[in-house]
Design brief:
Elements (H helix, E strand, L loop, with lengths): L4 H10 L12 E2 L2 H11 L6 E5 L5 H9 L2 E6 L5 H7 L6 E5 L7 H9 L4 E6 L5 H10 L4 E9 H8 L9 H9 E9 L4 E2 L6 E8 L10 H13 L5 H6 L8 H10 L13 H11 L4
Helix pairs in contact: 6-8, 9-12
Length: 286
């Protein structure tokens, strides 16, 4: 397997590969972590897996061993011949040289998996973690599960509860769609090159039926963004001053009174359920 420092260095030298900062490339060199990712994702021979950013294919090899079919989407064209080499033993892999943020994932699910739910597995570049996660959920891609390696700080924010300093718009957005669970903390020495921060493997299990019945999803997310746009402001001022929302202070206070919440409350103490109720109440003024 690739994921040993000696084997990774061998491949890098063979192809004179140079790490590029713009792609946030940090290759995993710890077999225990790779096994943990596949176990956490609960990959079986029934599963179609989309891997984002396969790098040289260390995690991809494990996925090919466990899944029915794997599609690996890699933005860096220099890695394509390397992947074709390291994955040549597998006949259940398709390698695509694409930017995942511009890629038609809906088309992939339709063409490769007959619109049935897929599993997404990735060691994500830190700089595009949030856009990728939100893209998967907001486009309502049929998902059986998402298991990703991300910056520890971001994993903490995703799993955060109301009233904590990590709790924010990302916590609410992800928890609206899925149940998060941090499966493992991963130190920098498990990567090549070593990142400056710790990482975590997080599993996001999509709600089979949403526990939240919201009338206007776009309004809900606008209220959430407004509430955390300037954390020190009260919820009333945050929503009142947010560009794109046009509620009067009286309407916002009225909604809070309906929810039996203080007019001085801040967004960081409100639960997702309370945000949903508030969005449903205010929707009548649109």
């Amino acid at each position: 397997m690739l994921a040993k420092p000696r084997n990774t260095i061998e491949i890098i030298n063979k192809y004179s590969f140079v790490f590029q900062k713009k792609y946030g490339q940090n290759f995993l060199i710890d077999t225990h972590v790779l096994e943990k990712i596949v176990r956490t994702a609960d990959i079986s021979k029934d599963d179609f897996v989309l891997e984002i950013g396969p790098g040289i294919g260390s995690l991809t090899q494990y996925l090919c061993e466990s899944a029915r079919e794997v599609v690996a989407v890699e933005i860096d064209k220099r890695l394509i011949p390397i992947l074709e080499d390291t994955l040549s033993a597998y006949d259940n892999i398709t390698i695509l040289n694409e930017d995942i943020l511009k890629f038609d994932i809906e088309g992939l699910v339709k063409n490769y998996n007959n619109n049935r739910p897929i599993k997404v597995v990735a060691n994500l570049p830190y700089y595009i973690t949030t856009p990728i996660i939100m893209d998967l959920f907001e486009k309502h891609i049929p998902l059986a599960g998402v298991t990703i390696m991300i910056q520890r700080e971001v994993a903490d924010r995703i799993q955060a509860r109301p009233g904590t300093k990590e709790y924010g718009a990302l916590s609410l957005a992800v928890q609206y769609y899925a149940k998060p669970y941090i499966a493992a903390n991963v130190p920098p020495n498990c990567f090549m090159p070593r990142p400056k921060v710790g990482s975590a493997v997080i599993n996001l299990t999509p709600h089979t039926e949403s526990p939240y019945q919201v009338k206007d999803e776009a309004l809900l997310f606008s209220l959430i963004r407004a509430s955390f746009n300037q954390r020190r402001k009260t919820l009333v001022n945050g929503i009142y001053n947010f560009e794109g929302l046009s509620f009067s202070k009286e309407e916002i206070v009225e909604a809070l009174e309906f929810l039996e919440l203080s007019k001085d409350i801040r967004g960081e103490t409100m639960t997702l359920g309370q945000f949903v109720e508030m969005a449903n109440y205010l929707s009548k003024y649109i």
